[in-house]
UniProtKB/TrEMBL annotation:
Family matches, as Gene3D superfamilies: MetI-like
Quaternary context: The complex is composed of two ATP-binding proteins (CysA), two transmembrane proteins (CysT and CysW) and a solute-binding protein (CysP).
The name this protein goes by in its record: Sulfate transport system permease protein CysT
Species of provenance: Nocardioides abyssi
Main location: membrane
Gene that encodes it: cysT
Amino acid sequence: MTVALEGRPGRARPTLVNHNLTTASGIGLGVSMIWFSLLVLIPLTAVLVTASSGGWAEFWRSITNEQTRAAIRLTVMAAASVTLVNIVAGTAIAWVLVRDRFPGKGLLELVIDIPFALPTIVAGLVLVSLYGNDSPLGLHLANTSGSVYLAFLFVTLPFVVRMVQPVLEELDMEVEEAAASLGAGRATIFRRVVLPSLAPAIAAGAALSFARAMGEYGSLVLLSGNLPFESEVTSVRILSAIENDNQAAAASIAAVLLVISLLVIVALDILQRRVARRG
């Protein structure tokens, strides 16, 4: 914003902006930083310090242990696969909920939020009842690696749906109709008009989905059996290390999960920015 100089209409000067915080803003910022530090920064720093307490050799030995490597590999592969499924399925479900009208829509809206409402141990009990050794569906996934994928799918289902749905509701359909009137096909409209607007929401939902899966424990306890090299995930390895009074090993594994999650979040952010620009 500019303001013309008096008597010289042809010249303008920028409006002065006050960058000083008010007393209320300063207090609010201070409280926010203290709260964020207590809940996030200090605990994360403590984990990293504990992980490095035994030296690099001990850290490397903890995370390259054969059983730990198998658990990390299974956890990352399952979390990544489930996140990809959620990106597609979650976006499709959000699209149906926003753009279509059908009987039972309200019930579907309610069912999608069940993984948010259920305690994870209860979710594990539900999954065991349906997919355990006495499965009424004939699907016996207990004590297999498939149980990990199933549990991750259950607890991460709502993230992409609930992130994409409000964005879809705010999209102006007149833009899509204008593109259609100019001869653009449905695929082109989705790729060039809709997808760039949804990309940030999809990326945010995918990041939440991946992070939740990486740290999931409760829904796996009853179904997976925690079998080494078969269905054991990193959260179980961390708990085992703590029970064996090996805090450094537990912190080392947690630090690896932290780094992997941060890398995935950064990669998703870069990807969604590129998609938005190309649109």
